[in-house]
DUF4143 domain-containing protein (Niabella ginsenosidivorans), 207 residues
Amino acid sequence: MLVANTGTLLNNEQYARSLGISGPTVKRYLDFLEGAFLIRRLQPWLANVQKRIVRSAKIYVRDTGIVHAVCGIASPAELPGNVIIGGSRESYVVEEVIRHLPKKLRAFYYRTQHGAEADLVLVKGIRPVACIEIEYSKAPVPASGFYQCIKDLKTKHNYLIYAGKEGYQNREGVQFTSLEEMLQVYYLFLINTCYRVKLKFNFEFTR
């Protein structure tokens, strides 16, 4: 069930009903899985926003190899036609971004009941500094909810991580980038923003 729902909102009671156990028991199991670094519960960004915010965590299976094995995906060629592709891609990118996160930045997601949404919000202290949308497509179009998120949070650095290789910026100022480029280039910019000094790092990207 966790594999099928990776990248979605966590609903303990739904799991409890499906498995025939109590909500507290589900939470205890999830605590164990998170402690074993098998899952991640990504919390929503709630501070300083006068909006009706979705308050449930999002759940991710941290190792997409497990996701693919459970779904019977034996090779990369089988992945694009599988319904799990969106959740798998989001899980992988979220894990890589958080794994390389500068110490002064924390990661959340953002979603309102009126449709504003960002897969990741990077926060310094109590100030959101970047919104990130994750897409599997090689020719993505940002959803209106992503632009609303940028407006709500007033972030100056906004990115769409997609499956293409070419980096470019659209008219609205959203930077389209591959995951590799995000980790190698734009993180330097975010680090410089956090520390207000010029730093140079070599990021090791693992496939």
Notes: The two ends are 25 Å apart (CA to CA). The longest helix spans residues 179-195.
